[in-house]
Design a protein that fits this description.
The complex is a heterodimer of chains A (about 475) and B (about 250). Chain A has about 475 residues and is α+β, with helices and mostly antiparallel strands. Chain A has a domain of about 140 residues. Chain A contains 16 helices and 18 strands. In chain A, helix 2 packs antiparallel against helix 3 and helix 7 packs antiparallel against helix 13. Chain A is globular and about 65 Å long. Chain B has a 5-stranded mixed beta sheet with strand order 2-1-5-3-4, with helices on both faces. A 3-stranded antiparallel beta sheet of chain B has the order 6-7-10. In chain B, strands 8-9 form a two-stranded antiparallel ribbon. Chain B has 2 domains: about 80 residues, Ubiquitin-like (UB roll) (Roll), CATH 3.10.20.740; about 140 residues, Alpha-Beta Plaits. Chain B is built from 6 helices and 10 strands, in the order ββαβββααββαββαβα. Chain B is globular, with a radius of gyration of 19 Å. Chain B is of the alpha+beta class and about 250 residues long. Chains A and B meet through helix 2 and strand 5 of A and strand 6 of B. Bound molecules: iron/sulfur cluster (2 copies) and FE2/S2 (inorganic) cluster.
């Protein structure tokens, strides 16, 4: 008799998800399904609203990484107006995105994932969380919290004029930067960089312990997508789209973001609200969207770029490439890539701040509605984000399409769950540490599924054993 | 120069004041430094008396009356702050919030909104009624301004200022009851209006995020209703006329 194991909801990721693992008659893992049971359809909700309101509307409706939505949306607004925004506005937008990457990656690494990495997958779930980490590694935990809060302050100083008034607007930035703000940021960056370097060192020193994870946490060939520039440096704000394959060969390059639909298809699945984007040219007429599976986010970005464009981060990138074998194909290395991105962000932020142009008060351009369609992108901490708008002649939204990073990793997360389940599940039960590994596989992608942060690690979790007709044979609940 | 207008005695919450014959309870209260909240009233425009936020109690019959549309009378005992008044004002605000779309967090006027201020002033911290917020079209056809019906509270300030101060009469009210709405140019898109002079007075006086400038992001709209008082006073005094032409 075949059995299905359902883990619902997954904990310590942001949102609600469900994992269903199907065993074959021999009790071996046969299928694995990762699906999202809650997602907000805010594309409908935005119709009829003004393009100027879109940054805030989208940032609020999907508030996990608001800066990424603000940026993608404001950039779409720039295109609708036909504007080239002031150079300082570009710099400030880049800076705020670096702040976002720092804070979000710090949350993912220190709060959500390091309890597993440092305390072990098999540790008691009651301590395997950020509070347990506080007890075991107080200094590290404190630094992680400070790093995150530094990133948040950068965001607040640039993007939050005051509560509810985002400073990232179509046309540029609402308020110029003051010398005072620049000065405290420069001071804070030193500690941020030091924390990033130490976390990186610690992670590298632990790598030996995680050989099995590195092999079985979603190691499979896939494409990787990210924004790219002609200089070959790590890009997170502008540029064009580039796909590379699992060996690092460029599969498609110099794709204007406006043409993303020619390369990215979106499949809907009956059991999940999350769309499953895939690389179109590899799927073409076949039904198998898994042929077009690609990954986005830190792992993909590091595969897509040649260098980080920052001295220390480039040294780290070199060591990373030696470890992962050039192009990284194990989802476990998302953690590693994330830490390198934090380091690069601190260095690149310093470069931006050391340029006096950052204080130029000319930060906003204005214009009316000059184009009907626009695509705005940004590299969110979790990966490439697309906002596509269609407006009428007066700037009211007629159509909205968004492709979020987590959606693009959807197929890859499925692969990852299957692989972990096959590696660790043996028999008809799933011990807690194995459950935790399955979840951790998902957590490596740092998915942002809807709107809540489950940072405590002991959330209610339900595991059901279902027979092939859907009847529950056995159930485990925790939390 | 001393005012020579005839006066009568009134009291606000037990305190005696002198009122000019013919002035409204609201005008008298403001002159005497007594606070009565108001929303549709705007100094410089005719009185509309529609929102009922300014209700006060008058001792003789305990009826609620709109202070902006009630004339003072001799020995009137006026109460401006009673539990009953507070409850009424709150309910009125709750109904206004429930009627349209007032998700302040994504509104151009967030932080600069008289409706929001009034909710704070009256202690309206939640809405007991189900939100109606029927989807209404946003008119963004005007090159300079945007009209978002979803945030309109039908105070008619725009209607009055356009008619009485600018003399263009672009705005009107159409329909009744829950279907009532303000319209431009006899229900044509604002951008197609031939009578609109682009003066922006309607936008200046709107108490909410219903009228705003094009291109404003969330929280960036600031209104200037006091401008109308300045204009009205200046007009009454004929300040912009060539003294030689004044009669
Ligand atoms: S009009 Fe005022 S009360 Fe209504 S949503 Fe805007 S800020 Fe809030
Ligand atoms: S548009 Fe503004 S001024 Fe005009 S009636 Fe509505 S709320 Fe009042
Ligand atoms: S202010 Fe008196 S009724 Fe509106």
């Amino acid at each position: 008799m075949s059995k299905t194991v359902t883990i619902d909801p997954v904990t310590r990721i942001e949102g609600h998800a469900k994992i269903t693992i199907g065993l074959d008659e021999a009790g071996k893992v046969d299928t694995a399904r990762f699906s999202v049971t809650e997602f907000r359809g805010f594309e409908e909700f935005c119709k009829g609203r003004l393009v100027w309101e879109m940054p805030s509307l989208t940032a609020r409706t999907c508030g996990i990484c608001p800066v990424s939505h603000l940026l993608a949306s404001a950039k779409a607004g720039d295109v609708i107006m036909g504007l080239r925004i002031p150079p300082t506005a570009v710099k400030l937008r880049r800076l705020v995105n670096l702040g976002q990457i720092i804070q979000s990656h710090a949350l993912s690494f220190f709060h959500l994932s390091s309890p597993d990495l440092l305390l072990g997958w098999d540790a008691d779930p009651a301590v395997r969380n950020v509070f347990g980490l506080m007890g075991a590694e107080p200094e590290l935990a404190r630094r992680g919290i400070r790093l995150r809060s530094f990133g948040q302050s950068v965001i607040e100083a640039i993007a939050g004029r005051k509560v509810h008034s985002p400073g990232i607007v179509p046309g540029g930035i609402a308020n110029p930067m003051t010398a005072e703000t620049r000065d405290w940021m420069l001071v804070g960056l030193d500690a941020a960089q030091q924390t990033a370097e130490e976390a990186l060192e610690l992670f590298i020193s632990m790598l030996g312990k995680f050989e099995r994870e590195a092999r079985a946490f979603g190691t499979f060939p896939s494409l990787h997508l990210g924004l790219a520039n002609d200089a070959g440096t790590w890009e997170n704000y502008d540029g064009h789209l580039r796909f590379v394959d699992s060996e690092g060969n460029v599969v498609a390059d110099h794709i204007d973001v406006a043409d993303y639909r020619e390369y990215i298809g979106e499949a809907s699945r009956h059991d999940s609200y999350l769309k499953s984007p895939y690389f179109k040219p590899l799927v073409e007429d076949s039904d198998d969207v898994f042929k077009g599976v690609y990954r986005v986010g830190p792992l993909a970005r590091l595969n897509v770029c040649q260098t980080m464009g920052a001295a220390r981060a480039d040294e780290a990138l070199q060591a990373y490439r030696e470890t992962v074998g050039g192009t990284a194909n194990s989802s476990f290395f998302y953690h590693y890539a994330r830490l390198i991105e934090i380091l690069a962000s601190t260095e690149l932020a310093r470069d931006l701040l050391n340029d006096d142009a950052i204080l130029d008060p000319m930060v906003r351009a204005t214009a009316g509605i000059n184009h009907r369609r626009a695509v705005g992108t940004s590299e969110a901490p979790r990966g490439t984000l697309f906002h596509e708008y269609q407006v009428d002649a007066s700037g009211l939204l007629e159509n909205v399409n968004m492709i979020i990073a987590t959606g693009q990793n959807n197929l890859a997360m499925n692969e990852t769950v299957l692989q972990i389940a096959q590696e660790w599940i043996d028999g008809h039960d799933i011990p807690e540490p194995v459950l935790n590994r399955v979840e951790a596989g998902i957590r490596a992608f740092d998915p942002c599924l809807s709107c809540s942060t489950h940072a405590i690690g002991k959330m209610p979790m339900e595991v059901s054993l279902l027979d092939h007709e859907g009847a529950e044979l056995d159930g485990v609940r925790r939390g | 120069m001393r005012e020579t207008r005839p006066t009568v005695h009134v009291s606000f919450d037990g305190v005696e004041h002198e009122a000019f014959v013919g002035e409204s309870v609201l005008e008298c209260a403001r002159r005497c430094g007594v606070t009565i909240p108001s929303l549709c009233f705007l100094e410089g425009l005719t009185v509309w008396g529609g929102c009922r936020i300014c209700v006060v109690e008058v001792a003789e019959d305990h009826r609620l009356r709109p202070a902006c549309a009630t004339q003072v009378a001799a020995d009137m005992e006026i109460k401006t702050e009673t539990p009953r008044l507070r409850a009424y004002r709150k309910s009125i605000l709750e109904l206004l919030f429930a009627e349209g779309n007032h998700v302040c967090a994504v509104c151009v006027s967030n932080g600069n909104c008289e409706l929001q201020d009034m909710a704070v002033f009256c202690g309206m911290d939640h809405v007991r009624y189900d939100s109606q917020a029927p989807p209404r079209e946003v008119d963004s056809s005007h090159p300079k301004y945007v009209f978002d019906q979803n945030r309109c509270i039908l105070c008619t300030r725009c209607v009055r200022v356009c008619d009485e101060i600018e003399g263009a009469h672009v705005w009107d009210i159409s329909h009744r009851g829950e279907h009532a709405e303000v319209i431009t140019e006899l229900n044509r898109p604002w951008g197609e209006s031939l009578s609109c002079t682009w003066c922006g007075k309607c936008v200046a006086v709107c108490p909410t995020g219903a009228l705003s400038y094009q291109g404003r992001a969330i929280g960036e709209m600031e209104h200037d209703p006091a401008m109308i008082k300045r204009l009205a006073v200046a007009r009454n005094r004929g300040e912009w006329l060539d003294p030689g032409v004044m009669t």
